[in-house]
DNA sequence: GCCGTTTTCGGCCCGACTGTTTTCAGTCG
């Protein structure tokens, strides 16, 4: 059976090649394939097993695409895709990935110079023959040369892990905030939507009066390596890490419209502009306006613009045209989780285990300062050879914790257990029963087959000592892919076992992934939002975990550490008293 | 290629910047 992700990537490839065939990345057919790919990605059931009627009922999939899905399922290929692949071989497609080289120029180079690969392109640039092609000149030659040199092949697809992008964004917005006349400087784009990886970093600045000083400051920041574009409203630079940063400067009265526009996603924006057009209005980065009189209808805040379009304000993390617009129109948006809903942290390390840095006292005090009602200390258990605590040390720690009692906050003595090859965890049942909380995580054997990983996770979930599964996939964004497992089976087991799935707050992890969280929407799955803090300051990482959870459409009541202490502790005990 | 209480044909979001042009096409987001 062909999986939805396979179908989706075939459709995306079809979109890319169709864009080449049509000479535009915005060709309607290319966009239609993109929309179809998105529709398939969002499906909970396998598209290849659905009826034609059910498939074509989905927005974005018509008869033609449905037929291609069945063709792929039946024959393992899509004839139209095969034909396009022959017309545009991989080397040529790779050439079109060079920034600044779109379908039109690429086809022109192929027709005029016979260039069909990046190597051909390099040779043409070196021989200075590119400038002889009508419509191209020495400047284009130079820009393409620099693009290849600087970004390499695939420059357009390069993505930066969110942790690096966030750091960069804060540095840039802090510097721009200091420029006189600047009222606000904020990151937008996929970083504000909290995607795991970021393509280009988008920043908007609201400034009254002179805009030039802002642009000047921007392109002269120390980390700027190269200025790609420099204009009154818009500038683009490449920074030392190779990331592209786009700056837009707007009037303060236009900030809402600009924020909406530059946060995207593109698909979300297109839907909004269609809604505007239906009312005879025009929506762009400067505001929502009457198409005829140009009179401004809304622009100051995002809420204003959404309200004028008849929509509730939509949280940036879910602006992907995943159904949020319909929900907002119906007043049926879910109550998404927010940071101030949290009443405790359930995955926290101290210096008792090797990689923690805060003392027990300092960690507990920091949690108390955050106003928490409960906290679980979860240092590594003994099977983690490097950092794990022996039984003796665990008992000592429990005693030390008892000495810290006396506050309103309940401190649970827990452990971060290691999920073994077969799904068993550290210690023995008797010793495990002594803990008040258990979070179990995969720390080893990342490359076992998916079926074995699935079994392993499910076994751990049903263990009475396991209240939650930590960082479900074990991924490190941009560095380690994480284990493969059957999402459907694991979510079903989570609902059945009443074991929570952790939403790990570390920017490096953000695990379980948003895709898994979204797929859990239709089931009775519980979550924790936990920091996995190794330092008291990291308790503040809840700000990341809650944004990630919102991207997964996680509602407040699904998150056990939003519950009042009594309800929370009852659930903990119920699970710990369960039988396999 | 998709879609439809104006439609089964004719629409399909909108604008900035660059380079190459002498008013606009290409690329990008």
Would you give an account of this structure?
The protein is α/β, with parallel strands linked by helices and 580 residues long. It folds into five domains: 85 residues, Orthogonal Bundle (DNA polymerase, domain 1); 61 residues, DNA polymerase, domain 1, CATH 1.10.150; 91 residues, Beta Polymerase, domain 2; 67 residues, DNA polymerase, thumb domain (Beta Polymerase, domain 3, 2-Layer Sandwich), CATH 3.30.210; 238 residues, Metal-dependent hydrolases (TIM Barrel), CATH 3.20.20. It contains 24 helices and 17 strands. The strands form four sheets. A seven-stranded parallel beta sheet has the order 11-12-13-14-15-16-17. Strands 2-4-7-6-5 form a five-stranded mixed beta sheet, sandwiched between helices. Helix 13 crosses helix 15. It is globular. The mean pLDDT is 91. The protein binds one DNA strand of 29 nucleotides through helix 2, helix 4, helix 7, helix 9 and strand 5.
Key terms:
single chain, 580 residues, alpha/beta, DNA polymerase, domain 1, Beta Polymerase, domain 2, 5 domains, 5-stranded mixed sheet, globular, DNA-binding
CATH homologous group name of the largest domain = Metal-dependent hydrolases
Poorly predicted regions are none
Q: Radius of gyration, Cα only, in angstroms?
A: 27 Å
Count of spatially separate domains: 5
Shape descriptor reads globular
Strand percentage: 5-15%
| Helix percent band | 40-55%
Architecture (CATH level 2) name of the largest domain = Alpha-Beta Barrel
CATH topology of the largest domain: TIM Barrel
Distance between the termini: 33 Å
Tell me the structural class.
alpha/beta
What's the number of extended β-strand segments?
A: 17
Question: What is the averaged pLDDT score?
Answer: 91
